[in-house]
Give the backbone structure.
Amino acid sequence: MKRFVCALTILAIAVLACGCTTTAPSSQVVSAAIPDLTGNWSGTMEGFIEEKGYTDYPGEAMTMSVTDQRGRIFSGEIVFSNQTATHEVKAFAGAINPDGRTFSIVEHGGGSSTGTLLSPGELELVYIERAVPFTIAIDTLKKV
């Protein structure tokens, strides 16, 4: 019985010693590298417009120009054009999430997008406009 109590005591001391000498896990959140989004991004759009239905915006082009970036905050203009002329220019600002891959954009005059950096040279935006008529679109853009 003495041997059992002695072994149990030694085991308890060993378990306590192991627990007391290990370090606590770090509670710091490690952020991913911040991507550089500055430059021009062009591509295609597809979406849905209330009362009009599904569309791939035939004959339309979209270019997003990120003209300034300070850390995770960036800004610029989005230009919409067709074969004959530019028909809309919207100022925007955005913020990159700590994961370094996803971001959000708000546009002047309404509308917002969530984005995902698919690769260093390609991104996707999901645009939402809550006005009447409401609109949602997926924009796939490549850096030019």
Remarks:
- The chain has one domain: 39-143.
- The helical segments are 2-21.
